[in-house]
Amino acid sequence: MDLKTIADELVAGCRENRARANLDRLYAANAVSMEAADMGQGREASGLDAIRAKHDWWESSMEMLDGEIIGPMLHGEDRFAVIFRVTAREKATGTVSEMEEVGIYHVADGKIVREEFFY
């Protein structure tokens, strides 16, 4: 897949609640996910299993109330950015938070090989 196809499909998957299904389609087996801060599981997740575990943590800990996804914004032939604006409720406490982050995705050989989140 080319960069635009991967970027468009990642955004569509997020908007249509099929981000998890896109992991196997769009990500390299050895992809790395890097957070801006340690949320209790470390900043770096290496490999699809670790990235799936991040999705599991989010889905078990947070309830999505509202969200907006802006992008993708392509950069050259190997990167794109997406802005995520989310309102979510922490399931354990009921605390509602508004969050905004930018995801930068690096692509090589037709797969996402690295994602970095800035917030």
Count every beta strand, where a strand is a DSSP E run of 2 or more residues: 6
Measure the end-to-end span. Answer: 29 Å
Tally the structural domains: 1
How many H/I helical runs?
A: 3
What keyword list fits this structure?
single chain, 119 residues, alpha+beta, Nuclear Transport Factor 2, Chain: A, globular, NTF2-like_dom_sf, SnoaL-like domain-containing protein
Secondary structure elements and their pairing?
Elements: H1 3-15, H2 19-26, E1 27-34, E2 44-46, H3 48-61, E3 62-75, E4 79-90, E5 96-108, E6 111-118
Helix pairs in contact: 1-2
Description:
- The model has no long low-confidence stretch (mean pLDDT 95).
- The radius of gyration is 14 Å and the shape is globular.
- The longest helix is centred in the middle third of the chain and has 14 residues, at 48-61.
- With 119 residues, it is of the alpha+beta class.
- The protein has helices spanning 3-15, 19-26, 48-61; strands at 27-34, 44-46, 62-75, 79-90, 96-108, 111-118.
- The protein has a single domain (3-118), classed as Roll (Nuclear Transport Factor 2, Chain: A), CATH 3.10.450.
What's the short version?
This protein has 119 residues and is α+β, with helices and mostly antiparallel strands.
